[in-house]
Automatic annotation (TrEMBL):
Alphabetized InterPro entries for the sequence: Na/ntran_symport, Neutral_aa_SLC6, SNS_sf
SUPFAM superfamilies: SNF-like
Record localization: Membrane
Name under which the protein is recorded: Transporter
Native organism taxonomy: Eukaryota, Metazoa, Chordata, Craniata, Vertebrata
Keywords, ordered alphabetically: Glycoprotein, Membrane, Metal-binding, Sodium, Symport, Transmembrane, Transmembrane helix, Transport
Chief location category: membrane
Organism domain of life: Eukaryota
Region Disordered: start-end pairs: 672-735
Topology in the lipid bilayer: Multi-pass membrane protein
Transmembrane intervals: 74-92, 104-125, 146-173, 228-248, 257-278, 306-327, 339-360, 464-489, 501-519, 539-560, 581-600, 620-645
Family to which this protein belongs: Belongs to the sodium:neurotransmitter symporter (SNF) (TC 2.A.22) family.
Organism: Oryzias latipes (Japanese rice fish)
Positions with a binding annotation for Na(+): G80, V83, N87, N345, L476, S480
A GO cellular component annotation in the UniProt record: plasma membrane
Length: 735
C-alpha cells in the first residue's frame, strides 16, 4: 500500500486512519493514555493536554478556548462594538450635510456592497480559525501576517483617545446632579464696585464656555501644553479602571456587562425621542432632517463620506469583530449574524438621527424665539429713526414684545425689506428662521457637549435628562472599547500565550500612562490629531489586504467550500462576486480618494482662542506634522516588515505543516505526506493538512519505544500515525 495514499489500515477493528478534520470531530474518542502522551514540536517536549489537533497546530486550543454563554450575549457584544459614539454624533451630521433623507440611499447601497460582505468575511474567518487577528491572517497567508499586528496597533491608538471621550462623558455625568445645570448660564464675576459676566462666556455661550474653560481648560494652541487637567485625569483613571475590570476575565466578565452597556443606550434613545416629540419644534427638526436634496447625491464626496461611515460604523479592520467571533461554535450561522448586526447598526443610526434632530428642532425653536424677541426690540428702538411706524401692521402690538410671534416678525421684516431694500442691511435685522438655526451643522464633541447640552437646559427636569444622556454616551463608548481592547488582547494571548489578567492590567496601565497626553490643557488637539490620522488610512489599507488575502491569495473558491462545510449551506453567489471583484475595487477607490484628500488637505486643527472666544483653524507645527505622519507609518509598518522577514526567510513563514493523521488508540507510526502537487486544499476547511499547508510547525508524538524523529516527507511535512501497543515500531509497507 503506497505511503501517500488515503487508504484506511485497520487492526483488531480499532485501528482507524483519519484526516485532521475527522480527528477533530471525534475528540471524545481519545483515551486517557493518549491525552497524557508527550508532545514534541520541532524537537521540544511538552505535555499534550488533549488529542485535539487544531488545523492551526494548537494542541489544546479547542477545549481551553472560552465560549459565549449564549447567542444573545454574543450578538449584544457585536452590536455594542459596532454601535458607538459615531452613530449618535457623526451619522446625523453627515445625513444633514449630504442631502438629508437622500443620504440614506448611498449609505444603504454601500452598506450592501461593502459593509455586509466584509463584516461577514471577518466573522467567518474568526469563527472558523478560532484565533485573534494575528493568528487568523498568519494562518491564511503567513507573508501577510502583518495585517494582524497592524490591526492591533490601530486598536491601541484608537483606544488611547476613545477612552478620553468616555472620561469627558463621565465628567459631565458627574456634574449633572445639580439644579440648575452648571452650564445653564454664564458665571458672574463680582468685585467691590460691580458684577459682570465673564467676557469669554458673554462672547460665546454658556455651554460653549463650560466645555472649553470649565471642563477642558483648553490652551490656545497645541504647542502650549499647560500641564495636566486634574479633573479629567481622575475621570480618565476611572474610565480605564472600568474597562480593565470589565475585561480582566475576558468574555466571561465583559459578556455580562454587555447586557447593560449594549441595551441601555436604546432605552435612553427611545425615551429621548418620546420626550422630544412632545416639545415644540421637534417636528420641524425631523422634517428638516429628512427633506431630501436629491441633487447632492450626484456629488462624489457624498459617496466617499457614506463609504467611510459604513466602514467605521461596523468596526471593520480593528480585529474586534474577529476576536468576538473566534469564541463562537464552528457551526454558528455567522451570515445571519452579519446581516442582523449590520441592519441593527443602521437602524440605530436612524433612531439616533431622529432623536438628535428632534432635540435640535426644539433648540432651534427656542433660539428662534429669542432671536425674534431681540430683533423686535431693535425694531421698536428704530421706530421714527429709520423705520416708520406706518410700516408696522396694525394687528401687531409692539408694546408687548413677548407676544410677537415668529410669523408676525417675518411679516414685519418682509414689509420693511420691500420698502427699504437699499437700507435694510444697515438696520442690522436678522431673518430669524428655524432653518437657519438647523443649518448650523455640528458634529462630534460640538454636538454632544455644546449643542445637545444647551438643548437639555431648556428641558423640564433637565438634570434627569442630562444624567441619562451622558450615561448613554458612557455606555456607547464602553461597548466600543470592549471590542477595541479585545482586538488587542485576543491576538496577543493567542500568539504569545500570556495570562489574560496580567496582559489586561498591563495594557490598561500603559494606555492610561500614554493617555495623560490627552488630559493636559492642549489634550483636545491631540485627540483630533489621533482621530484624523491614526485610524482612517491604516484601517482602509488593512481591510483592502484582508479582502485580497482571502479572495485572491487564499482563493475564493476554497473559501466558499470552507463556508459551506462550516455553515451547512453554500452562501449566496452574490458574496462570491462581491469579495472577488466589487468590494476590492470599491475599497481601492475609497483608499485612493482618502489618500488624495489627506495630501490635498493641509494638516490643521480647530483651536479655541480665549481672547476672541471663538474657534480658529491653525496649521500643525512641524513637529505636529511629524507626529501625524508617524501615526500612519507606525500603524502600517507591521505589514511590509512581516512580509519582508518571511519573504527573505529571516523568520520562518510557518509553511511546514502536518501530513495526514493516522489515528489508533495507542502509539503512533510515521506516515509520509502527500506529494506537493496535491497540496491545494484549504487551510480553514477541515481537510487533512496533507492536503493543505499549515502555518504551524510539524507535530508528532514521541513513541514509547524511544523512536527517532519522523522522516521529512517530500513536501517538508512530518507524517503522523497511531498504532496499537502490540504493533511493531515499523513504517507501513509499500505493498
Amino acid at each position: 500500500m503506497p505511503k501517500n495514499s488515503k487508504a484506511v489500515k485497520r487492526e483488531l477493528d480499532d485501528d482507524v486512519t483519519e484526516s485532521v478534520k475527522d480527528l477533530l470531530s471525534n475528540e471524545d474518542a481519545c483515551d486517557d493514555s493518549f491525552k497524557k502522551s508527550s508532545l514534541i514540536v520541532n524537537g521540544q517536549e511538552g505535555e499534550g493536554k488533549e488529542c485535539d489537533v487544531e488545523e492551526g497546530g494548537s494542541d489544546s486550543e479547542e477545549e481551553e478556548r472560552p465560549a459565549w454563554n449564549s447567542k444573545l450575549q454574543y450578538i449584544l457584544a457585536q452590536v455594542g462594538f459596532s454601535v458607538g459614539l459615531g452613530n449618535v454624533w457623526r451619522f446625523p451630521y453627515l445625513c444633514q450635510k449630504n442631502g438629508g433623507g437622500a443620504y440614506l440611499v448611498p449609505y444603504l447601497i454601500l452598506l450592501v456592497l461593502i459593509g455586509i460582505p466584509l463584516f461577514f468575511l471577518e466573522l467567518a474567518v474568526g469563527q472558523r480559525i478560532r484565533r485573534g487577528s494575528i493568528g487568523v491572517w498568519n494562518y491564511i497567508s503567513p507573508r501577510l501576517g502583518g495585517i494582524g499586528f497592524a490591526s492591533c496597533v490601530v486598536c491601541f491608538f484608537v483606544a488611547l483617545y476613545y477612552n478620553v471621550i468616555i472620561s469627558w462623558s463621565l465628567f459631565y455625568f458627574s456634574q449633572s446632579f445639580q439644579q440648575p445645570l452648571p452650564w445653564h448660564e454664564c458665571p458672574l464675576i463680582k468685585n467691590k464696585t460691580s458684577t459682570y459676566v465673564v467676557p469669554e462666556c458673554e462672547k460665546s455661550s454658556a455651554t460653549t464656555y463650560y466645555w472649553y474653560r470649565d471642563a477642558l481648560d483648553i490652551s490656545d494652541s497645541i504647542s502650549e501644553g499647560g500641564g495636566l487637567n486634574w479633573k479629567m485625569t481622575v475621570c480618565l483613571l476611572a474610565a480605564w479602571s472600568m474597562v480593565c475590570l470589565a475585561m480582566i476575565k475576558g468574555i466571561q466578565s465583559s459578556g455580562k456587562v454587555m447586557y447593560f452597556s449594549s441595551l441601555f443606550p436604546y432605552v435612553v434613545l427611545i425615551c429621548f425621542l418620546a420626550r422630544a416629540l412632545l416639545l415644540k419644534g421637534s417636528v420641524d427638526g425631523i422634517r428638516h432632517m429628512f427633506t431630501p436634496k436629491l441633487e447632492i447625491m450626484l456629488e462624489a464626496k457624498v459617496w466617499r463620506e457614506a463609504a467611510t461611515q459604513v466602514f467605521f460604523a461596523l468596526g471593520l479592520g480593528f480585529g474586534g469583530v474577529i476576536a468576538f467571533s473566534s469564541y463562537n461554535k464552528r457551526d454558528n450561522n455567522c451570515h445571519f449574524d452579519a446581516v442582523l448586526v449590520s441592519f441593527i447598526n443602521f437602524f440605530t443610526s436612524v433612531l439616533a438621527t431622529l432623536v438628535v434632530f428632534a432635540v435640535l428642532g426644539f433648540k432651534a425653536n427656542v433660539m428662534n424665539s429669542k432671536c425674534v424677541a431681540l430683533n423686535t426690540n431693535r425694531i421698536v428702538a428704530l421706530l421714527g429713526n429709520g423705520i416708520e411706524a406706518t410700516l408696522i401692521p396694525h394687528h401687531i402690538n409692539l408694546t408687548q414684545v413677548s407676544q410677537v410671534t415668529a410669523d408676525d416678525y417675518h411679516q414685519m421684516i418682509d414689509i420693511i425689506k420691500g420698502v427699504k431694500e437699499d437700507e435694510f442691511q444697515k438696520l442690522g435685522l436678522e431673518s430669524c428662521t428655524i432653518e437657519d438655526e438647523l443649518n448650523k451643522a455640528v458634529q462630534g464633541t460640538g454636538l454632544a457637549f455644546i449643542a445637545f447640552t444647551e438643548a437639555m437646559t431648556h428641558f423640564p427636569a433637565s438634570p434627569f435628562w442630562s444624567v441619562m444622556f451622558f450615561l448613554m454616551l458612557v455606555n456607547l463608548g464602553l461597548g466600543s472599547m470592549f471590542g477595541t481592547i479585545e482586538g488587542i488582547l485576543t491576538p496577543l494571548i493567542d500568539a504569545f500565550k500570556v495570562r489574560k489578567e496580567l496582559l489586561t492590567v498591563g495594557c490598561c496601565a500603559l494606555a492610561f500612562s500614554i493617555g495623560l497626553l490627552f488630559v493636559q490643557r492642549s489634550g483636545n488637539y491631540f485627540v483630533t490629531m489621533f482621530d484624523d490620522y491614526s485610524a482612517t488610512l491604516p484601517l482602509l489599507i488593512v481591510v483592502v489586504l484582508e479582502n485580497i488575502a482571502v479572495a485572491w491569495v487564499y482563493g475564493i473558491d476554497k473559501f466558499f467550500e470552507d463556508l459551506k462545510e462550516m455553515l451547512g449551506f453554500a452562501p449566496y453567489r452574490f458574496y462570491y462576486y462581491m469579495w472577488k471583484y466589487v468590494t476590492p475595487i470599491l475599497l481601492l477607490v475609497l483608499l485612493c480618494a482618502s489618500f488624495i484628500q489627506l495630501i490635498m488637505t493641509p494638516p490643521s486643527y480647530s483651536a479655541w482662542i480665549q481672547e476672541e472666544a471663538m474657534e480658529k483653524t491653525l496649521p500643525f507645527p512641524p513637529w505636529g506634522i511629524g507626529v501625524c505622519i508617524s501615526l500612519v507609518v507606525m500603524a502600517i509598518m507591521p505589514v511590509p516588515v512581516v512580509f519582508c522577514l518571511r519573504y527573505f526567510n529571516i523568520v520562518d513563514d510557518g509553511s511546514d505543516g502536518l501530513a495526514a493523521v493516522s489515528y489508533k488508540k495507542a502509539r503512533i507510526i510515521k506516515e509520509s505526506g502527500r506529494p506537493e502537487d496535491d497540496d491545494d486544499a484549504s487551510l480553514i476547511h477541515g481537510k487533512s493538512p496533507s492536503e493543505a499547508p499549515s502555518p504551524m510547525p510539524g507535530i508528532y508524538r514521541k513513541q514509547s519505544g524511544g523512536g527517532t524523529e519522523g522522516d521529512t516527507a517530500p513536501n517538508g511535512r512530518y507524517g503522523i500515525g497511531y498504532l496499537m501497543p502490540s504493533t511493531p515500531d515499523t513504517p507501513e509497507s509499500d505493498s
